[in-house]
Amino acid sequence: MSRYILNENCIFSEESLEIENQENAKKIKMTPMRARCLSFLIEKRAEKVIDKGTITTELWGTRGQFITDANLTQLLYLLRKDLRDVGINDFIITVPRMGIRVNRETSVATVTAPQCLLKEKKIKPETILISTLLCLLSLLATMGLFQAISTS
Fold this sequence. Notes:
Layout: E1 3-6, E2 10-13, E3 18-21, E4 27-29, H1 32-43, E5 50-51, H2 52-60, H3 69-85, E6 92-95, E7 99-102, E8 108-110, H4 113-121, H5 125-151
Antiparallel strand pairs: 1-2, 1-8, 2-3, 3-4, 5-7, 6-7
Helix pairs in contact: 1-3
């Protein structure tokens, strides 16, 4: 399961099915289908157009043949609403009579583990730097004390 940073300030977690704006702490719990749709769109963001048949097949599998355009339209509407609620506008762009595409102006980056921990625990980089410096100073002081004892 991956995590993504969308629009440089929102974290989308496939595992927890949540998208959170880090600036205002607005968090949305998504349905599994909406989260799966968002994951699929993120994976296919490089494509010029994603046709509706590809989306329904990916999301509903063999049942996709029984899914109407209205089902997909409703899913995309609700996904757009979730994204707008956390401050991401125009992530999904409709291409008339063809399908949809992901707005290339919206940045998408995969989150690495240390970034996840920083965001989840709300640890500021300055705190990590200060802690590291204190550990180094403590280590240097201990080494200096050890050298002073061993030379006497």
